[in-house]
Specification:
Layout: H1 6-11, H2 32-39, H3 44-48, H4 51-65, E1 70-71, H5 78-83, E2 88-90, E3 94-96, H6 104-108, H7 113-117, H8 121-134, E4 140-145, H9 147-156, H10 164-172, H11 174-198, E5 202-207, H12 215-221, H13 223-232, E6 238-242, H14 249-254, E7 259-261, H15 268-275, E8 281-285, H16 294-308, E9 312-316, H17 326-338
Parallel strand pairs: 1-4, 4-5, 5-6, 6-7, 7-8, 8-9
Antiparallel strand pairs: 2-3
The structure holds coproporphyrinogen III (CP3).
Coproporphyrinogen III binds at residues 24-29, 38, 44, 71, 73, 75-77, 89, 94-95, 143, 159, 206, 208, 319.
Length: 342
């Protein structure tokens, strides 16, 4: 039995006393104890591939911030890695893939499904260690990148302001794009199932670059694959977070996901009036609000909670930025934890 199961009760739409809170990227550079471990290593990849250290940094925000859930420390880029495209993380630049995908031969050389996912043994070990050390204090969230977001990195080889190469691939090499998206989908499903077997209580699918597309492209290249993923995951709740996809909310809310993640561009009251009060939502405070005064943080947080009314998991609209004052992050968490629904 999980002691603090507020997140799970909220997802089941039970009546709860307040919204649960956790923060995307809560395990990371905002915490001095994360920076200490990180600086003792050769790099990010070493941290991700060392299970006892990944477990340690997963639990740090539970201890330090008192959040209502842990999220396993890892990265979405482990999927391309297990399919045959290793990544690096370059300091101050971000992800980098020495090899990328540009042809049919590149795609057919990729491994897929369970055979590929099973290689990520270090993630499953990290989950097992985390579950033991967490000792059921809070639920543990597992995650994956969505097919489109992972395709972006596999085609571009790095981050981009436009992802025009990846988008161009959808237009120019439509058939190949679908082949790659299907291979990714099969691998993501196998990976999430292995994460669930290792012990995660909830999973979140991050479609971080959804906002690069439009309604038609999202409907063609994303929704059918997200649907396969959501339909395949039956044993734990699924959170679908498509950042920037305001244009596809109708399609996303029709997926059978248990929770819809919303970025800060979605107005809570407008969302409720369009999609009803029964949908469980996660979000969506602007991460930059945490640079402001404590008074303002409280006012924004209270407004958000009141506008969503219920069935709400408090989170930011995207990951917390590394230079956010830790004191403000703690203030937000404490504020939400003392809140009581009327
Ligand atoms: O606390 C958590 O949320 C769990 C850990 C987590 C990380 N990455 C750790 C990380 C999660 C859930 C991710 C997902 C991820 N990774 C996404 C989807 C979420 C999002 O932000 O949209 C994406 C797009 C990536 C790809 C990625 N990994 C980028 C763009 C970067 C560089 C960004 C940066 O801030 O430097 C990474 C590296 C990364 N992943 C860091 C962390 C804590 C920074 C690593 C470091 O330098 O120590």
């Amino acid at each position: 039995m999980i002691q603090n199961d507020l997140l799970l009760r909220t997802i089941r739409k039970e009546k709860v006393e307040r919204p649960p809170i956790w923060l995307m990227r809560q395990a990371g550079r905002i915490l001095p104890e994360y920076r200490a471990i990180r600086s003792s290593l050769s790099g990010f990849v070493e941290l991700v591939t060392t299970p006892h250290l990944a477990a340690e940094v997963t639990i740090q925000p539970v201890d330090r911030l008192g959040v209502d859930a842990a999220i396993i420390f890892s990265d979405i880029l482990v999927i391309p890695e297990c399919m045959g495209l290793p990544y690096e993380l370059i300091e101050k630049k971000g992800p980098y893939f020495p090899r990328t995908i540009s042809s049919a031969a590149d795609i057919s050389a990729l491994e897929q499904g369970e055979v590929a996912a099973e290689k990520l043994d270090y993630v499953f070990k990290a989950i097992e260690i985390t579950k033991k050390s967490l000792n059921d204090r809070v639920p543990l969230i597992g995650f994956s990148g969505a097919p489109w977001t992972l395709l972006c990195y596999m085609i571009e080889g790095q981050g981009s302001k436009t992802f025009s190469k990846a988008k161009g691939f959808l237009y120019k090499e439509t058939k190949l794009a679908h082949q790659l998206l299907q291979k990714l989908t099969d691998t993501i499903i196998a990976y999430l199932k292995l994460k669930i077997k290792a012990g995660v209580d909830v999973v979140q699918v991050f479609d971080s670059w959804a906002g690069m597309l439009d309604k038609q492209l999202y409907r063609t290249f994303c929704i059918p694959y997200l649907k396969q993923i959501v339909d395949a995951i039956q044993d734990v709740p699924v959170i679908a977070f498509s950042k920037g996809a305001f244009f596809s909310l109708e399609d996303i809310t029709e997926l059978d996901a248990d929770v819809i993640g919303l970025d800060w561009t979605i107005d809570p009251s407008e969302f409720r009036s369009r999609f009803g009060k029964e949908c469980v939502v996660q979000g969506n405070l602007d991460p930059c609000a945490l640079y402001g005064s404590k008074h303002n943080i409280e006012a924004k947080a209270e407004n958000l909670i009141k506008s969503f009314e219920a069935h709400h998991i408090f989170n930011l609209g995207h990951g917390v930025y590394p230079d956010t004052p830790l004191d403000n992050v703690k203030h937000l968490v404490n504020f939400v934890k003392q809140y009581k629904y009327q």
